[in-house]
Amino acid sequence: MTSLSQKSFVASQDFDALKDIVGEKGLMWPDGHGGDDFAVYETCVRYGAGKAAFVVRPANSKETSRVLAYCYGRGITLIPQSGNSGLVGASTPDSSGTQGVLSFDRLIRTSEMGTDSSDQIIFDEENRSVMVGAGVRLSDLNAFLEPKGYVFPIDLGADPRIGGMIATNTGGARFLRYGDVRQNTLGVKVVLADEAGTELDFMSGLRKDNTGIDWKHLFIGTTGVLGVVTEAVLNVVRLPQQSTAALLVPRDEAAVLKLLLEMEQRCDTNLTAFEGMSANAIRAAFDHVPSLRNPFPGGDVPDYVLLVELSRTWAKRESEQNLDELMEVVLAEIWEDEEAPLENAFIGRPEEMWALRHALSEGVKHAGKLVAFDVSFRRGDLMRFRAFMAQELPEKFPNVWICDFGHVGDGGLHFNLSIPQDDPRLNDTAFMPSLREWVVKIVVEKYNGSFSAEHAIGRSNQGFYDLYTPEKVKELAGKIKGALSPGELGDVKLG
Amino acid sequence: MTSLSQKSFVASQDFDALKDIVGEKGLMWPDGHGGDDFAVYETCVRYGAGKAAFVVRPANSKETSRVLAYCYGRGITLIPQSGNSGLVGASTPDSSGTQGVLSFDRLIRTSEMGTDSSDQIIFDEENRSVMVGAGVRLSDLNAFLEPKGYVFPIDLGADPRIGGMIATNTGGARFLRYGDVRQNTLGVKVVLADEAGTELDFMSGLRKDNTGIDWKHLFIGTTGVLGVVTEAVLNVVRLPQQSTAALLVPRDEAAVLKLLLEMEQRCDTNLTAFEGMSANAIRAAFDHVPSLRNPFPGGDVPDYVLLVELSRTWAKRESEQNLDELMEVVLAEIWEDEEAPLENAFIGRPEEMWALRHALSEGVKHAGKLVAFDVSFRRGDLMRFRAFMAQELPEKFPNVWICDFGHVGDGGLHFNLSIPQDDPRLNDTAFMPSLREWVVKIVVEKYNGSFSAEHAIGRSNQGFYDLYTPEKVKELAGKIKGALSPGELGDVKLG
Q1: Which helix (H) or strand (E) holds A417?
Q2: What CATH class has A242-348?
């Protein structure tokens, strides 16, 4: 552990030493040695900018190991930074100017490749897996896989790098069918923040292996503070060759879960998405992206709309129904019941529906001052929480608009609130924290939900971690952190 | 930590103290206080019998906590024992007579129920999950779920209790479609072997939750040495309403993986099993169970046979092909290729095919002296390992017969060897260890495989854990064990 005085001391000798490890193009520091991009590494998507003492960009796991060992010895704090598209402020330095950024930019080849290999990805089709460096972007991985008929099935709006996806255990819109990053990670190579910069190799890529602790799970979802994942073996799946989507209008809020259970039974794993969208979020998307087609009769947006998707990995056979027909049959079956949970349904072009779904996020950002919560519930409680909020929020915080959307199929909810930009309460520094704390309290205490469903822990929600994690659990987390990576890694405190 | 002298001392005062916690029927000890069943708790399926100082059977998590705290204070080693159907000798005491068995027999209700509640299982249909005590048997859970149209999808030959399934992270025959216990565990309650007998509650049952370390993964698959799981929240799935199966004869060994990839693409997740069976294992099953029908022309068993299963959660619709037709269409598609990987195929009654598959295990047990290995590989390496062994084993160990079967779809292999019971080498105490060590060496060193795919670590494979786990990993495992459960829990040493 380092003292504050040590931490604040990063000197030119450190730059020389780090350059010896990563080379000229592997290190940047302020005052003319940073290049034009330096500020990019200091700035995160949602929570303002910090100030970096330097940015170090190792090209492989070995260099990462030497960087971590060096910084451990010097008591320098390193902030692991992957695609820097995270939403909780975990991947950028604080404002002290004493922390170094450990960028994954150049971690795009695995140890088995030469550094000048043209291949970035090792594909094992028989095992349906790939071996990649932590710096490979999701889009690059999928561009590599698609011609081969495969995909890494984590469907996100952003384009992160693999290391950050592992560190935050991202979920996304097709979790219902494919699970999260954790469920699709078969192995990792990890570097610890200790005296030796220990490299641990859990890269066998086996699907069944029960020989003691399954170590990868400690490093998945813990934002890099227990160790830096430099390489990974990932599960990949067959690219769907057929898909269809529908917008469903549930009879009422209670009908949403009934519809989910009906769809699951009647479509099994053909069901690849079951997403919920509030009227306010949909209207915000239409306002922000005028080219979006409004599919609702008379343009009247229903209170709540579900986007359901069916897909299959094979091309339609002559002897089979296509998926549009299956969707129609399934909806007709559901409708037969007099108390059908379904009020209306629109089958149309999947691209159009997904365009609407993907426009929600930007839409709500432009509808006013956005207060975003990434929460989750047992699936049934998601709609109960929404109903409670629709009732209580206007009384507690009038003139705050709910424009949520989310992953009903897995209980994840992007619970967004929007406040008019000219609202005088925005000038009151106590207002926003009190709103945040009230919402999270309801999520955690009333509904036993999570205050971070798929964005993990960073500076922005550290306070909630501290508040809602039992003392004993924090004590144990501290011991595990101390055992694995006693050095200063990341700015998140689990213990 | 306890000294040996402390460990060997279990006295009548301990029986009194434990009885105070668990009541008369919660404690048994030798010399007339054990009941007729006492030896059952001392004996494991595959690796002989030990000797217990006592058997303590707490009825809930609170009692478990008090038992662990007491035994921690007294330095008594407890061996957690669930259904005692494990195959690596992890659930029974050693021969010293100083270890107590911590039985899960009575852990059949969760903390939310009264101890005299008639319900043993809390079903949350909206969340597709159940909350159960660790002592509930798999068969009882499924008997509860089936009338509701659901199943806990871990398909095993044995009938373990849930706690043991979690402790060993069982996989089974439908892993390909449903994953292992880890992937179907949404939460656990766990009791630590520390001074307080700390109870940790990770029972929220959320599907998406990334708020620090995901603790359950430390307790899954580590045979109870890091803490005793007393309750769990499990994912359940819709019970299939249609299924079909076929026996496929691959053109040659290399064709097996091609067939797997073809089936995955053409059937997607309708494919729920892809199991491999060697001719020797099949013949052993026919010998042992004469009532099994031999489906092969002229009774000639092919060298290697695959059992593939398709299933769906919905009842066949009039407008759809049934699954038998789908299987025929898919096999015809594969056959179209001149270099089709398929030599022959038999579509028949799924029950008959599964009866054959499930008879393999008993069959090989009766074919001679069985030497069983539970190993796994990257999927492609499974067949390469088999080919290597077919070549090398007869030279290295003549007159030893390979009668393997396994889960080709996930790389898991029950690599069984059979030796004639009258073979004089069986009297040579060095023979069996040398055979075991040679096979495992090939698995781990040549093929980067696992020496314990789905049975976890126990006394029988502790030596391989010690040999093949890197020193640094063992050191870290020891620290984690010390942080979580410093007391003597289980007889497996991870660190």
Answers
A1: strand A412-419
A2: alpha beta
